[in-house]
Specification:
0% strand; elongated
Length: 167
């Protein structure tokens, strides 16, 4: 059962990362459009420019767990690669339990009021003609912490399986 839960978490994180990766292509297209509209046709749309910021935030906040899943985050690896698989599993287990999860819980706790306040007023852009859903953008902070918590849970399950010698 634990293995099925870990596989479901892994698939969810993988799907979310692959889905959000397509937003980078959309971001490039919109950026190109903004430049052409501004410098060729002398037209500017605040909402179009803000959409690039929204997409950028979505890619980074939702893609963080996917990046962690594929061990693509920047890290200083002086000793880790030389350790045995079981020692690395212990390091991953302790890192997830004592560093990552407490940080994510703290970030969620601190961000909750920030996001809730934005939802209370249905916060929109401060610019005239800007996008109305700033509260949705801020909610991505909590989505990120949820996805990273799931990924940390997956990492803990896999570390325990490695330590105990179960596949």
């Amino acid at each position: 059962m634990l293995n099925r839960a870990a596989t479901a978490i892994e698939q969810l994180i993988d799907f979310s990362g692959r889905a959000v990766s397509w937003l980078t292509l959309l971001m490039v297209i919109i950026t190109f459009s903004v430049v052409v509209l501004r410098y060729v046709f002398d037209i500017g749309w605040i909402a179009l420019q803000e959409s690039i910021t929204y997409l950028h935030a979505m890619v980074f906040l939702i893609g963080a767990a996917y990046t962690m899943q594929h061990e693509a985050h920047v890290r200083v690896d002086i000793f880790y690669s030389r350790f045995s698989e079981q020692t690395r599993a212990w390091i991953d287990l302790c890192g997830a339990l004592f560093l990552l999860l407490p940080f994510l819980f703290f970030l969620s706790w601190v961000s909750w009021q920030y996001v809730a306040s934005s939802w209370d007023v249905m916060e929109g852009s401060r610019e005239a003609g800007g996008l109305p859903g700033v509260y949705l953008l801020k909610s991505l902070i909590l989505v990120m912490t949820a996805l990273l918590t799931l990924q940390a849970t997956f990492q803990i399950i896999r570390a325990i399986q490695t330590i105990t010698g179960r596949p």
